[in-house]
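Student: I would love a firmer grasp of how sequence relates to backbone shape in proteins. I am handing you a single protein, as its sequence and its fold in token form. I am told such tokens are a discrete way to write the fold. I hope you can help me see how the letters and the tokens relate. Take your time, and here it is.
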Amino acid sequence: MEAGFSAMRNELQSWDALWRRIQLECQQLHAELLKVKQHKDMQEIQIRHESSCVQLTEQVENKNAELLLLAQSQEHQQEELNKIRSHLYQEEQSHRSEQERMKTEISDLTEELHQKEITIATIMEKASLLERQLKMELEIKDKLLAKQQLLNFQYQVIKSENIHLKEMV
């Protein structure tokens, strides 16, 4: 797109240079016309200049017609350039708003992730505490079970001694 702008700029500059040359030629023609008016008494020069002026006037009219077409073309190109600039501006604005939306979304997701990390750390602490409590309870239950088994065994021994003593009595 930059190459297109550069090409249009170069073309406009060349048309501008042509316009300046035509203006310079017009100025020269006017200067020559003044000289012709000053030398009215020399008919040969006047006729030659009149012929030359007619040709130059035709050339100037042709150049003016070309310049008019160039000016119209330049206006059209300027309109196209303005449309392109407008479209580019809209694209840039759209891109900026998309970037802002993405930054906001990333920020929100980062915050959410941070909150989840905190939640996970809290759950891990609670799980560790519950695991220690369960181990302690299991140890207590294991001790109580061992004690109960020992008491059951002692009970069985005493019961069997009682039976044996009853039989003996």
Summary: The chain has one domain: 9-168. The chain has a mean pLDDT of 85.
